[in-house]
Amino acid sequence: MSLQVRLSYLACVPDPLPAVPPEPCPLNTESGQVGRRTGACGCGCEPRGHRICDTPGRCCVECRSLSRYLENMTENESKTLGKGSVPPGPVPEGLIRVYSMRFCPFAHRTRLVLLAKGIRHEVININLRNKPDWYYTKHPFGQIPVLENSKCQLIYESVIACEYLDDAYPGRKLYPYDPYERARQKMLLELFYKVPHLTKECLVALRCGKECYDLKLALREEFCNLEEILSYQNTIFFGGDCISMIDYLFWPWFERLDVYGIADCVNHTPALRLWIEAMKQDPTVCALLIDKNIFLGFLNLYFQNNPNAFDFGLSS
Amino acid sequence: MRFCPFAQRTLLVLKAKGIRHEIININLKNKPEWFFKKNPAGLVPVLENSQGQLICESAITCEYLDEAYPGKKLLPDDPYEKACQKMVFELFSKIPSLVGSFIRSKTEEDRSGLKEEFCKEFSKFEEVLTNKKTTFFGGNSLSMIDYLIWPWFQRLEALELNECVDHTPKIKLWMAAMREDPAVSALWIDVKAYRGFLNLYLQDSREACDYGL
């Protein structure tokens, strides 16, 4: 069967851009102080792949999310809690808490969604090599991410957490409204399931000075499947011409390709490379991009089994 | 395919929601070439609608049907309750492959090892029902999560694995309640028929999928 046809059942028909909610822009300045290209509203939003407002003084969703992030910024960069730490109190109303770790790709998904939707949240980072006993009351196996709300409800598994946030919070919907398009994004996610394991195995092999030729070959094969989807659809993003949930669910592993030393795995997938560049333009992705040197510092300590690895880069 | 537990999930939802549908059974031991255009992996179930849209993966098909069709909602509207059903579903993820291994097991030793694993997994489910204090996994009425896990519990009797629920009384009660459900009864597979199918299927017979017809 031709390469084009094989995965064509997963290709989407791009949706028209949905309507923009009218609200004054929190970052709106005459001169577009944020420093990016100025859109019609003067708020400096990156137009490509986003809804752009055409009424001056009104704003696109990204500015609200970004301004909320800037409010919350200190919250995201807190020291980890480890064994012997005092359990945190209940989550205040109006806030949702995410138990996380700054370098974890699964938790990264949840933080992307929280920011993209402009959801007020607090981050508690967990020391994964020295987990607090109280953390097992949040997750039976002590995994992250876990969401906790002010009703003491706990949600875990990164994909379930992301969907919960999209369902429970108003504003910009990251999953499409159409049931078939929603199903399509979930089928795309199935295509991705080998990637996290393969990228981790490559990282471990390289860090231990071993060859990982077969692993990289397997990873390239997975990337070829994703390449096929993008080429067939002829869209920038996996859900169409706008960024959506599926892109955020994939992103954390692509951000890590370079720092893991396997960036050459996208050498033969041009559409995927274009997608990576488009993702790097997204304000939410941008705001959460981890500095390469800090990530390398973390990885060095992590592979030396240093329990302080997780706090690397934080000012003491 | 009449005996596939994954396809049974989709059929249960179609029945429960009263969705008009037609069934095309695929011979999984002799797949038609054209079927790979419906699903490159060649697996059932696959949904196809009049717009030519194809949906694969049993859990995705079930959720699609619940969203796309009116009538009784099988997934809760409340985002947290919906997330809870998905977390229980994650808990279930080991069971299908355990059943697959059990069906293919060759030695008594392997079988008793697997039975122990089943008991371990089932006790997690018993805990869910104990904590929730409800009959069903989603609350006091039958809902999506119950249909998603049912096909494997239905097959316990045919596989002589009933002993694995001996120490999980709430699961036993749940199974009895499930048997009362109209959709479940409509899609009931006779123990003899299932064993007849399985026998031929394990021998890779092309007649297996049509057993009993």
Catalogue the unreliable spans of chain A.
Answer: 14-25, 27-59
Biggest β-sheet description of chain A: 4 strands, mixed
Spatial extent as radius of gyration of chain B: 17 Å
How many DSSP H or I helices of chain B?
10
Distance between the termini of chain A: 58 Å
Strands of chain B, total number: 2
Question: What features would you describe in this structure?
Answer:
- The complex is a heterodimer of chains A (316) and B (213).
- Chain A contains twelve helices and four strands.
- By secondary structure, chain A is mainly α.
- In chain A, strands 2-1-3-4 form a four-stranded mixed beta sheet.
- In chain A, α3 crosses α8 (245-255).
- Chain A starts with a helix and ends in a 13-residue tail after the last helix.
- Chain B is built from ten helices and two strands.
- In chain B, α1 runs parallel beside α3 and α5 (95-104) runs antiparallel to α6.
- Chains A and B meet through α4 and α5 of A and α2, β2, α3 and α4 of B.
Question: In brief, what are we looking at here?
Answer:
The complex is a heterodimer of chains A (316) and B (213). Chain A is mostly helical and 316 residues long.
SSE layout:
The complex is a heterodimer of chains A (316) and B (213).
Chain A: H1 3-6, H2 61-76, E1 96-100, H3 105-116, E2 121-125, E3 146-148, E4 154-156, H4 158-168, H5 179-191, H6 195-207, H7 213-233, H8 245-255, H9 257-260, H10 270-281, H11 283-287, H12 292-303
Parallel strand pairs in A: 1-2
Antiparallel strand pairs in A: 1-3, 3-4
Helix pairs in contact in A: 3-4, 3-8, 5-8, 6-7
Chain B: H1 5-16, H2 35-38, E1 46-48, E2 54-56, H3 58-68, H4 79-91, H5 95-104, H6 108-132, H7 144-154, H8 169-179, H9 182-186, H10 191-202
Antiparallel strand pairs in B: 1-2
